[in-house]
Design goal:
alpha+beta; SHC Adaptor Protein; 5 strands
Amino acid sequence: MLSLPPSVRIFIARGATDMRKQIDGLAALVEHVLHEDPFSGHLFVFCNRARDRVKILYWESSGYWLMHKRLEAGRFAWPDVDSASGTTSATELHAMLGGLDISRAKQRRRYRRKSETA
């Protein structure tokens, strides 16, 4: 599926997005609604009202990638408009695209090495 370096952040557009929008329309949403730079190299994820389609916008050095997934049955578990966070991890994105409801999942604590500042 997607292999992402840790430097890439994933932004979720909470609520519904018009799936007729293509690259330029989604880039405008990133800039004006999410208040982020669409050329940053981060992923921006959008879902429709029926929650059966997802689009992911990504800027690579020479142009945009637009990924689109349509479910034949079922719905994505999508964060509501009132959700606190607009970002997610690659693990949570994979789970969401795979059909898991991450709001009901419980992540266990793990050891994380503190980064050294020089």
